[in-house]
Amino acid sequence: MIVAASGVEVRRGGARVVRDLSLDVRGGELLGLIGPNGAGKTSLLRALCGLDPLAAGHIAFDGRTPAEIGRAAFGRTLAYLPQNGRIHWPMTVADVVALGRLPHGAAVLDDAARRAMAAADVTPLAHRTTGTLSGGERARVLLARALAVEAPVLLADEPVAALDPYHALQVMELLRATARAGAAVVAVLHDLTLAARFCDRLALMDRGALAALGTPVEVLAPAPVAAAYRVAVESGTRDGVPFVIPWSRLDRTDRTEQSP
Amino acid sequence: MTGMRHHRLLISGLGLLVALLFAVSLLIGYAPLDFGAALSDLLAGRESLPALVLAELRLPRAVLGAAVGFSLGVTGAALQGLMRNPIADPGIVGVSGAAALGAVVAFYFGFSATFALALPLGGLIGAGVATVFLLMVARSGADTATLILAGVAINALAGALTALALNLAPSPYAALEVVFWLMGSLADRSLVHVALALPFMVLGWGLVLASARAMDALTLGEDAAQSLGFSMQRVRLLVVGGTAAAVGASVAVAGAIGFVGLVVPHLVRPLVGHRPGRLLLASGLAGAALTLGADIAVRLIPTRPELKLGVVTAIIGAPFFLAMLRRLKVEGP
């Protein structure tokens, strides 16, 4: 599966929140979508899901637009994990994960749903009702729900926002494993350390536009990070894997000096 | 997890309960009746007095009790699912208010004095006008909150115009009769009332029940439901259109019967593992059972004139609802 966005523009209340953005994501890769608050990451993800209309440009999945794929089949093509997802009724965890099977027919706890529960490490919670879960547990249940779709494309909006370091590492490993199993995975991330450590490529957005696209080492170099985030980073490698730590804030003067 | 077998058992049990209460509803009444003779006369096609009492008095009342109750239960569950709000009520889409206004207008201009079906027909016309307006709003791409606010606005306008009609009523007796009618009752309804309302109710049930899978998906919110392949606009049309048809027809023939649509989904929800799709049918059956039971109660309670059904459901429903709110607060969503 190749997800191809070209010349995408999204408007919200007249403002261009995504501007002339072109990007390809291939099956097998984990692409991290990073950028400061308000850069347009969530807007881009929603546009990829077909939740918001495009003001310009187009998005294709293996060459077909969502309209050509059709609504029901699109539900099997793409799994979407919204930011701060809620579960509105106190259903059991197993019933919530089974909702991911709806695009394939009924919401039943079949093998795919069980695999998703095992992968997200929520099988022991199967009979708990969602009202009794901690924030981290709920985040993993919602991830399991998205994985249960077994779609070739997974779009996750801040999947590690509510997680402690153990579960954040676990979820990032899981997203990478999902990509290795053949899916095209896009994850919005704020944690640059995790982004550098796990993603195959990073797309850095700033004020609606794509500021940098490439390997973590390229994108998280001091100059693009300073321009977009106004922070200086400390970076290095361990066992050949890059890591980045945001270290200090830069004021406006530093930003102009370091901008290309 | 709530298994499929458990669910089938629940649905069969509720179905049996409705059938039982339906039979009890046929068995009791004010006119003395040899039920066996009436039934055999009716089946043999003999036009005896017992057969007439059964077919013309008791059968319409039982059928409407079940149908109105099912309508309120199923639409209450659907609206709570659509809005993901446990205090949504079928009345919230404004169609009940509009149906009541239609009936009051028919009453006010004296149509009901000249022909008996003016009240239900006026109610149906009122509900129909409100439904067309709501569907236009839904089709224009309005979100759920806007759609519900449109319903609240219809309700407010219909309530104001109903109050105006009462204010200008030609005599206190006319006003009193309107107020009585608004309280909701199944007394003295005929098979013609059934024939008028039932088709719209059945249509409404079909539309609402068709939204079951989307209701489940909506547990995760509208964005996630859309990503699972459901069209929010279609779900809104199904639920609001179905509610308008079923509840509009209910209010047109039975007046406003409160609290059934609000309370019944809460009662049933734990029995279906809180799954909003499965809740629909179960809540409809439980609504039918509750309404039949309440209508049996108003005939057994020895007050004359008989208590209005809507009064009884509200008197039972409101304190019950308060008790449930306390429990909800403890458990939390």
Automatic annotation (TrEMBL), chain A:
One of its GO terms (molecular function) is ATP hydrolysis activity. Transmembrane segments: none annotated. This is ABC transporter ATP-binding protein. Belongs to the ABC transporter superfamily. It comes from Xanthobacter tagetidis. Residues 3-232 form the ABC transporter domain. Keywords: ATP-binding, Nucleotide-binding, Translocase, Transport. Gene3D superfamilies: P-loop containing nucleotide triphosphate hydrolases (3.40.50.300). Part of the ABC transporter complex HmuTUV involved in hemin import. Responsible for energy coupling to the transport system. It holds the Pfam family ABC_tran. PROSITE patterns: ABC_TRANSPORTER_1 (PS00211), ABC_TRANSPORTER_2 (PS50893). InterPro entries: AAA+_ATPase (IPR003593), ABC_transporter-like_ATP-bd (IPR003439), ABC_transporter-like_CS (IPR017871), P-loop_NTPase (IPR027417).
Automatic annotation (TrEMBL), chain B:
The keyword Transmembrane helix applies. Its main location: membrane. It comes from the Bacteria. GO terms for molecular function: transmembrane transporter activity. It is found in: Cell membrane. GO terms for cellular component: plasma membrane. The chain crosses the membrane at residues 60-79, 91-111, 117-138, 145-165, 194-215, 235-268, 280-301, 307-325. It is a multi-pass membrane protein. The keyword Transmembrane applies. Belongs to the binding-protein-dependent transport system permease family. FecCD subfamily. This is Iron ABC transporter permease. It comes from Xanthobacter tagetidis.
